[in-house]
Amino acid sequence: MIELFTSPTPNGWKVSIMLEECGLPYEHHPINLFKGEQREAAFLELSPNGRIPAIRDGDLTLFESGAILHYLAESSGQFLPTEPKRRWDVLQWLHWQMGGVGPMVGQSISFNRYIEESVPYAIERYGKESRRLFEVLDRRLEGRDYVCNEVSIADFALYPWLRAHKWARVSIEGLDNVSAWLERLRARPGVGRGLAVGVPKDEVDQWSAERKASYRRGGKSIVTEVDG
Q: How many domains, the chain?
């Protein structure tokens, strides 16, 4: 059985969504980022970079969410076309998320929510770049239900980060294709189950004020703490 080592973050949800959508059995091992469990020796054996998620499947261990999504798609034969042109179309959008949307939205969240000192340049830069990327996605979705026509690992990689647009303080106003795509994905039962992994059931869609405050405090330590 696949073992999933993760936390309720956009990168973590990519993999739990994929596992639920594929219907693959797995065992969830929560990693508490606030307690620094991602820096403990046992986890570093799975993920040398000290970042979630990671999986273990028999004698194979994998870290990096994009690699894990690719592996699960190959293993299950789902959500990644076999025809070369369509396959590479999905993979290029997967890598676009990994190299652009995730880092930019992640930085926008950090500077808007976790860093005590206001850094206007960073807030503006990452907010504008996140919005630009959202606009790229909106154009891509014109006339399409999903990023590559059929639902794929590209959608599962992008969805948790686009879903965080309010937390990142990046508007999606006027991006009707993105808004419809978000609703379309949220309506999928597997996506809903994937989002629930590691999150109290009554807070899957809307965290309480207390939980948000906790994430602000804990996130600050994750963002600013540097190992010696």
A: 1
